[in-house]
Amino acid sequence: MTDVHRTVDAVWKLESAKIIAGLTRLVRDVGLAEELAQDALVSALEQWPESGVPDNPGAWLMTIAKRRAVDQIRRSRRLERKHEQLAHELDQQDSELDQQQDPEQDDVLRLMFISCHPMLPTEARVALTLRLLGGLTAAEIARAFLVNEQRIAQRIAGAKRALAEEQVPFELPDGSELAERLSSVLEVIYLIFNEGYSATSGDDLMRPGLCLEALRLGRLLAELAPHEAEVHGLVALMEIQASRSAARTGPSGEPVQLHEQNRGRWDQLLIRRGFTAMLRAREIDGTPGPYVLQAAIAVCHAQARTFEDTDWRQIAALYEALARVLPTPIVQLNRAVALGMAYGPQRGLDLVDSLTADPVLQDYHLLPGVRGDLLIRLGRYGEARLEFERAASLTRNVAERAFLRRRADEIAVSGTSGVTLAQAAQDFLGRDDLDAGTVRSYGQTLRRLRLTLGDQMPLAALTADQVARVFATAWGEAAASTWNRHRSAVRSFGAWASLDHLAAALDRRAEVRTPTETIDPAQLEALWNRTDLRLRERTLWRLLHESAAGVTAVLSLNVEDLDLDDRRARAGDTWVSWRSGTARLLPHLVAGRTRGPLFLADRRPGPARMPADTDLCPETGRRRLSYERAEYLFKQATKSLDSAGSGYTLRQLKPRP
C-alpha cells in the first residue's frame, strides 16, 4: 500500500462518521449517504496520488460527497419538480452550514442514534455502528467477530433497508424516548467492547481491536453527550477494564484470573482516565444507573493494591444496588461471586444454586465455572471437577476451554466414577434397534441432559430430581407434546440403563390435539404449477401430500429404501406410498444415487458438526435435510398463499379427508 493510500485509509477511519452523518441529514437516507461518501473516497484514491493530500482532507471529502448528492437529486427523472426543490433546499443548507461553527457533532450523534435504533436486531446494530461510525469494512467486521463476510454485508444491507422502509427520522430523540434510545447506543458500544475483552468464540481470549474501537466510540459519545451520567459511567467502566488487558493472559494466551494477575501490569493511564470519567458521572445529579454502578465496582478493584485488599463488602453492596436497577441473571451471578468473597463461599453458592433453573443461564459456561470455584473453597472437589468440565464443554472460546479443562484436571479425585452420562448416552444411541428418526429425537433429550449436568456426571449418581430440574428449565414452558416426547426418551434411557426411577418426577402432560387445517386445493394447484421451485422441495411437498405420511417419516427415507416400481418405501416399521405426481419427480431427485438420505441439505457439514453416519450421504458428503430447514423453506414459499402472510406448515400438506 502506498503512503497516499495509507493516508486515505487513516482519514477515512477518522472522518467517515462525520461525512456520513452530515450527508444523512441532507438526503435523509443512511444507505444513500454511505454510497455518496464511498464515491468521495474513490475520488480521493484517484486524485490524491497525483494532486497530493489536501490540507483539510475531511472537508475535501465532504465537499465532493455533497456535490454528488446534488448531482444525484438533479439527475433523477422521477418527481422532477420535487427533486429540483430538494436540490435548492440542499444548496441553501450548504450555505447555512458554512455559517455554522460546528454542525458535525450533532450530526454524528444523530448517526449514532439511528445506527443503534432499537427496531434493528442487536447483531445488525453492532455491524452497522462499526461500519458507519467506525469506518470498518464488512471484511474487517467479519474478521473481528469470526463470521462470514457475506453475513456481515447482509446484516448491514438489511439494517439500512429497514431504516429506509420505516422512514426513521434523522433527528435526536427527546423526552421519554431519549432514555430508551441512549440505552440502545450504550448497549451496542458495550457489546462491542465485551466481544473484544472476552471473545465468545475463536482461539484467542481477547480481540484488542474491538476494545479500542468501543473505547473510541465511548469517548466520542461522551464528547457529544457530556451531560449524560451513564455515558461517562460506561467510558469509566471500559477504561478501567481495558487497563487490565496486559495482565489477563499468560505467555501462551491462557487466561489469568483476577487474583493471580500482576497488578503492576495494569495500565495506570487508562485507570486515571477511568477515574476522571467516573468523577464526571458523579458530578451529574441523578440516581446512579447500571453503567455508573458497574464503573463503581471497577473502581473498587482498581483502588485495591493487592487482591487481598479488595473491599468485597463494598462490591457486594454495589452489586445489590445494581440488581435492583438491572435485575438480570448475569448480574445475580456476578453478585454471587462478590457475596462468596465477602461473606463466605456457602453464601455465594446458595445464590448460584438458585440461578441454575433460569433458562437464560442454562448454556452459560460461567455459571458452572463460578459454581466450581465456590465448591473448591468448600472442599467439595469432586463436584467442582464436574462443574469445570461442564463449563469447558459449554464455552466456544478455545483458550478458555483449555483453561477450564486444565482446572478440572488439576483436581485430584479419589476412586473411579464408573460409567459417565456421556458414555451411557453414546452407547444407548448407538444401538442397532433404533431407527434414524428415533436416534435424532432421543439424541436431543440426552444432549440437553449432558449439557446441563455435564458429560462426566457418573451415571450411577444421576437422580430423578436432577432430571426434573433440567426438564423444568429446558421444557417447562414447552407444548405438552414436546414435554411428553422428551419424557418418553428419558424413560427409555432409564429402562435401558436399569435406572427406572429417572422419570419418576416427570408427570405426563395432557395433550389437546386440534385438527390441522389443510391447504385449499386451488392453492395447492398454484403451488404445483410454480416453475421457480427447486426439485427437492417440489418432490418433498408432493410426497407429503400424496402419502399423507408424517414429516419426520418422510424426511427419514433413504434412497435404498425406495421401491420406484411399486411406488412405496420403508420408513421404520411402516410404509410410505405415493402417486403419479411424486413418481414423475423421484427418479430425477435420486439421479443415480444408490445409498444415503433421500432428501439432502444444500451444503456439506463442517468438521465440528458431523452428523451420524445414518444421516450422511456417502456419495455426496451432504447430510440429511433437517425438519427445521424444510419447514422454513415451505413457510417462505407459501407466504403469498397464506392470507395471514406467515406461510403454511408442512403438516398442512396432508390431503383433505
UniProtKB/TrEMBL annotation:
**InterPro entries (UniProt xref):** CB, DNA_brk_join_enz, DUF6596, Integrase_catalytic, Integrase_SAM-like_N, RNA_pol_sigma-70_dom, RNA_pol_sigma70_ECF_CS, RNA_pol_sigma70_r2
Coiled-coil boundaries: none
Q: Name one Pfam family in it.
A: Sigma70_r2
Q: Where is the Tyr recombinase domain?
A: 514-657
| Statement: the UniProt record of this protein carries the keyword Transcription | yes
The UniProt keyword set, sorted, is: DNA-binding, Sigma factor, Transcription, Transcription regulation
According to the entry, every stretch annotated as the Core-binding (CB) domain falls at 419-498
Record family assignment = Belongs to the sigma-70 factor family. ECF subfamily.
Q: What is this protein called?
A: RNA polymerase sigma factor
- Give the organism, scientific name: Streptosporangium brasiliense
Organism placement in taxonomy:
Bacteria, Bacillati, Actinomycetota, Actinomycetes, Streptosporangiales
